[in-house]
Design brief:
single chain; alpha/beta; Rossmann fold; six-stranded mixed β-sheet; five-stranded mixed β-sheet; 15 helices; 13 strands; about 15% strand; globular; binds iron/sulfur cluster; metal-binding; iron-sulfur; S-adenosyl-L-methionine; Radical SAM protein
Length: about 450
């Protein structure tokens, strides 16, 4: 008889006692998704639970038509896990739907929600309440959830102001990215999904959040969207994304920490981001290995090239300060067939080389856990994603490398530590020691 997923999870918990148990479960949920019983879904925008907003990518293991009930009634944006046989401390997990997952959220016999693994109850499940600001529409009828959704339990306002990427088609799109497909599927389903958000509607949505977020949970905003290789609305990438920050900072000076996820741009453009009021820059390097970057990010390789991309990341530290340059990589694609590493050892050692390259210069990368969306080339060929062991060892390596170079957790991510972290699309913040965080948070 093969090993069950429970055996695999418990084996890793035993082998890596330095990684919180919470992170083992969270990584497994992020890489493989969660099935939802119909009763655990939300009432969309009319219910009492905060629904999944599809803030940039689909982050699902099926297309909307394949998700069944979860396509009609949205799942929650995030869930929070506690208790169970592993005694989990409060753990916030972004929801990625997979009807075939061995993890299932459903109603337990006592009427509360629980997370089952292989049919056994392993945690109590809490759902995010519908925020007050989601109950108010903009003057043009659009919802705040569509224009300015919040994630990370309300900490981060996620402003995907350009819903598509100009790297288009098989020869340019990153091989793990479904931004363009996700836009098409929402349009096909008749859901509101604005291709380019106007500065005015973003400001109006922020006005509503500012007014109704009475507990001050929202602390940061991220401006992002697809790459711009020519122009959008007559503007290049730095000015297109930067002018939102300019307008936000004019209207709400210092209310939130401003971040931008964009390409690694030439220094003059990066300076413009800073001048517009952005404080944290995410020029994502996606995957460290040269061969894999060239294969997985053909558009970025063609337009900029890996070496230049890395040079620009280092240059941007002179403008933002190394602490505030936080490039992301997609953890797990290193092990995607057919081109990826075939052993966890090789994948970790390559990823560690990248971490050391940046951390030795005071720049702290961060990562999201790869969700193998089925409409992407890598997701199609690797529906199970990367091995769980890779993700667990990465957490250990990340923390170890950070400590070696005397760095603390990056700013703009909320509190660190198991039981306290709110960052929901990887468990790097759950795995860092409690109290390790930037003064900005
Ligand atoms: S640059 Fe790559 S990862 Fe970013 S949106 Fe475009 S295709 Fe997706």
């Amino acid at each position: 008889m093969g090993r069950s997923r429970t055996d695999e999870v418990e084996d890793l918990m035993a082998r890596f006692p330095g990684v919180p148990r919470e992170a083992v479960i969270k990584e497994d949920l992020l890489r493989g998704g969660i099935a939802f019983d119909a009763e655990a879904l939300t009432g969309d925008e009319n219910g009492s639970v905060k629904p999944k907003s599809y803030f940039i990518f689909s982050f699902d293991h099926g297309t909307l038509p394949e998700l069944g009930a979860a396509a009609l009634n949205r799942p929650p944006e995030e869930i929070v896990l506690t208790g169970g046989p592993y005694g989990l401390r409060r753990t916030v997990v972004s929801v990625r739907v997979n009807p075939n997952s061995p993890y299932r959220v459903g109603v337990t016999p006592d009427g509360t929600l629980g997370l089952m693994l292989d049919g056994r109850h392993i945690a109590d499940v809490g759902l995010p309440p519908m925020p007050d600001y989601y109950r108010h529409a903009l003057a043009n009828g659009k919802s705040v959830m569509e224009v300015a959704p919040t994630i990370q339990w309300g900490y981060l306002i996620y402003l995907t102001v350009f819903r598509v990427c100009q790297y288009f088609g098989a020869k340019e799109e990153c091989q793990y990215c479904d931004i363009n497909h996700n836009w098409r599927q929402h349009k096909a389903a008749g859901r509101p999904y604005t291709g380019v958000k106007s500065v005015e509607e973003v400001l109006e949505a922020l006005e509503i959040i500012d007014k109704h977020d009475t507990t001050g949970a929202s602390r940061a905003y991220t401006l992002t969207g697809g790459s711009i290789t020519s122009q959008v609305k007559g503007l290049g990438e730095a000015d297109f994304y930067g002018r939102y920050a300019q307008a936000i900072e004019e209207r709400f000076p210092g209310r939130w920490i401003g971040k931008v996820v964009a390409q690694a741009l030439p220094k003059e453009d990066v300076q413009r981001f800073h001048d517009y009021g952005i404080r944290i820059y995410h020029p994502n390097y996606e995957v460290w290995d040269r061969r894999l970057f060239e294969l997985y990010c053909p558009g970025k390789e063609r337009y900029v090239g890996r070496d230049e991309w890395h040079r620009r990341i280092l240059d941007s530290a002179e403008i933002f300060g190394p602490r505030n340059v936080i490039p992301n990589f997609v953890a797990g694609v290193e092990m995607a067939a057919p081109a990826g590493f075939t052993t966890v050892d090789e994948a970790i050692s390559s990823t560690e080389e990248g971490l050391r390259y940046f951390m030795s210069r005071g720049i702290t990368p961060r990562f999201t856990t790869w969700c193998p969306e089925p409409t992407t080339p890598l997701g199609k060929q690797n529906p199970a994603g990367a091995p769980l062991e890779y993700h667990i060892r990465l957490l250990e390596t990340y923390r170890g490398t950070m400590e070696e170079f005397g760095l603390s957790s990056p700013p703009g991510y909320g509190p660190a530590g198991a039981g306290r972290a709110v960052f929901s699309v990887s468990s790097f913040m759950d795995s860092l020691p409690e109290g390790m965080q930037g003064a900005e948070d």
